[in-house]
Write a structure and sequence with these properties.
Layout lengths: L3 E8 L2 E9 L4 E6 L1 H6 L17 E3 L12 H4 L5 H14 L8 H8 L8 E4 L11 H16 L8 H8 L11 E7 L5 E3 L8 E7 L10 H14 L7 E4 L3 E5 L3 E2 L2 E2 L2 E3 H5 L11 H10 L4 H16 L11 E5 L4 E4 L33 H10 L5 H9 L2 H10 L4 H8 L6
Antiparallel strand pairs: 1-2, 1-5, 2-3, 3-4, 6-7, 6-8, 8-10, 9-10, 11-12, 13-14, 14-15
Helix pairs in contact: 4-5, 7-13, 9-10, 10-12, 13-14
The protein binds adenosine-5'-diphosphate (ADP) and magnesium ion (MG).
Length: 420
C-alpha cells in the first residue's frame, strides 16, 4: 500500500507549510500554509526552488543520495552519515520492530532539535489508515528527550563529553560530534538539542576519539582555525577541550534564538557530490543571486584562497552555508567551518583533486585562475588578499608544535601548502 505521509514544517513559531512524501514514487510534495503566504513574512526564507504559491508543489528531481527525494532545503535538516549511524543504531537497539526508516520519519526524529531553525512536527491531518511511523517516532523522541533531560554534567571536560555522547545526537557531517549547551554562569553542560536560551553557550563539538591515528585531527583543525582567523576569515569562537576535542560555538544559535541557515547545496539544489555542479563559480553566482553584501563575496574569495593555499580540498557545497536575517528578510554568508587539512598526512600521496573546481580546474591551479575569478566577481585587491593569506603560513609550524602535533605530521602537511 502506498505510504503517503505528511509532516508540518515550522520556523520562528510559525507554521510554514506541510510536507508530504510518496514512498512508492520517491517524490515529495510541499504546500505553503496560505495564511503564512498572505502574511508576507519571511518571504525570502526559501529563495530558490520552492515557489511562493498556495498550490501543492511536487518535487521529483531530487531522488538521489544527497536529497533523498525531499526539497533540498528540507533535506539539509537530515543528519549526514554520522548522525544517521547514531540514529539507526539507537533505534535498532531500542525498537527492533522498525523497518527501513523513511526520510519523513527521520525528519520527525529531528523534530525541533535540528540544526538551523526549521522544525518538523507531526501533522494532525494524518489519517488512521496510513502506515506511518511518525507518531511512533515522536514517542521515541519524547523518550530520548527524557533520557537526555536527565543528563547533566558539572563541567565541560573529556569524561562529561563521553557520557553525553553515549546518548546520541543529530548533528550532521561525517566525523563523530555532539551538540552541547554550556550554562554561562554555572558551567554546567547539558545535551545541546534540548534548549536554546541566552543563558547558554551552544557548541558543536568534534570528538577526539578517533582510534589508530598517530595525531589528533581535532588539533589540526584547531591550528587551521587559528590560521584562518589570522588570515581574516570569519569563524565562530572555538576552543579545545582537554586538548582532545574541538568545540566551536554554533552560528545557528544566537542570543537565545534559532537562526535559519541553509548550506549552499540545500539552498540551491546543487548536489554537493556531483562534480559537475561543484565549482566556486556556482558558489559566487549563488551569493550574487542572494544579493549578499559585497564584503561577503570578498570573504568568500578569501576563503577560496585560504583553501587553495592550505590544501583544504574538502571545500564542497555543504561546507559553505548562508544565514538568514529575519528582521531584514535577507541572506548573508555564514561563518566558515570545517576548514582543515583534508588529506591523510600519514599517507604519501596528496594529489587528490579538490571538491570545488575554479576556472574549470581542480588540480594545477595557478595565480591566473584565481585572478580570473577575482575579475569576474569584481574582487578588488585580489593580490593583497592572497598575500595576507600566505603571510599566515609560518603560523602553522608554531601553532602545530604548541598543540603537540608530531613533527612528521607537521612536515607532511606543510609540504602540501601552495603559494601563488
Ligand atoms: N559553528 C557552527 N554553527 C552551526 N552549524 C555548524 C557549525 N559548524 C558546522 N556546522 C554544521 O554542521 C555540519 C557538520 O560540521 P562540519 O564541521 O562540516 O563537520 P564534518 O567534518 O563532519 O563534515 C556542517 O555541515 C554545518 O551544517
Ligand atoms: Mg563538513
Amino acid at each position: 500500500m502506498a505510504k503517503n505521509n505528511l509532516i508540518n514544517l515550522h520556523c520562528f513559531n510559525t507554521e510554514i507549510g506541510k510536507l508530504g512524501f510518496d514512498e512508492d514514487r520517491n517524490v515529495s510534495f510541499f504546500q505553503y500554509n496560505p495564511s503564512f503566504l498572505s502574511s508576507g513574512l519571511y518571504a525570502n526564507m526559501f529563495p530558490l526552488i520552492i515557489r511562493r504559491m498556495t498550490q501543492t508543489q511536487v518535487f521529483d528531481k531530487y531522488n538521489n543520495e544527497t536529497f533523498k527525494g525531499l526539497p533540498p532545503m528540507i533535506a539539509d535538516s537530515l543528519p549526514d552519515v554520522f548522525g544517521n549511524i547514531v540514529f539507526k543504531a539507537w533505534l535498532e537497539s531500542t525498537h527492533k520492530g522498525l523497518k527501513k526508516i523513511t526520510a519523513l520519519e527521520q525528519l520527525a526524529y529531528v523534530g525541533k532539535r535540528g540544526m538551523g531553525a526549521l522544525e518538523y512536527l507531526p501533522s494532525k491531518e494524518v489519517t488512521g489508515d496510513a502506515t506511518i511511523n511518525i507518531d511512533e517516532i515522536t514517542a521515541i523522541v519524547e523518550e530520548v528527550l527524557r533520557t537526555k533531560g536527565e543528563a547533566k554534567e558539572a563541567q565541560l571536560n573529556h569524561a562529561a563529553l563521553l557520557n553525553i555522547f553515549k546518548i546520541g545526537t543529530s548533528a550532521g557531517g561525517v566525523r563523530p560530534k555532539i551538540l552541547i549547551s554550556e550554562n554561562k554562569l554555572t558551567g554546567q553542560i547539558i545535551p545541546g538539542d534540548l534548549v536554546y536560551a541566552g543563558e547558554y553557550d551552544h557548541y558543536i563539538i568534534k570528538l577526539g576519539i578517533t582510534e589508530g591515528l598517530s595525531y589528533s585531527k581535532e588539533a589540526v583543525e584547531y591550528a587551521y582555525y587559528l590560521m584562518a582567523s589570522a588570515a581574516g576569515i570569519n569563524m565562530m569562537p572555538t576552543k579545545m577541550i582537554d586538548n582532545k576535542h574541538f568545540a566551536t560555538l554554533r552560528f545557528d544559535r544566537q542570543n537565545g534564538e534559532k537562526i535559519h541557515t541553509l548550506t549552499a547545496s540545500g539552498m540551491s539544489g546543487l548536489d554537493f557530490k556531483d562534480p559537475a555542479a561543484s565549482s566556486y563559480e556556482n558558489l559566487f553566482d549563488l551569493s550574487i543571486y542572494l544579493k549578499l553584501p559585497h564584503k561577503d563575496t570578498e570573504q568568500l574569495f578569501r576563503r577560496m584562497v585560504f583553501n587553495l593555499v592550505f590544501a583544504n580540498h574538502d571545500d564542497h557545497l555543504k561546507n559553505h552555508s548562508f544565514v538568514y536575517d529575519k528582521e531584514h528578510d535577507g541572506w548573508g554568508l555564514s561563518p566558515a567551518y570545517d576548514v582543515t587539512f583534508s588529506l591523510n598526512p600519514e599517507i604519501n600521496f596528496s594529489k587528490t583533486s579538490r571538491a570545488l573546481s575554479l576556472n574549470g580546474k581542480r588540480v594545477g591551479i595557478a595565480l591566473q585562475d584565481i585572478l580570473t575569478i577575482a575579475d569576474k566577481y569584481t574582487i578588488k585587491n585580489a593580490k593583497g588578499i592572497i598575500k595576507e593569506v600566505q603571510d599566515v603560513i609560518p603560523l602553522w609550524n608554531e601553532k602545530a608544535a604548541e598543540l603537540a602535533i608530531p613533527d612528521k605530521i607537521i612536515a607532511s602537511i606543510r609540504k602540501d601548502f601552495m603559494t601563488f
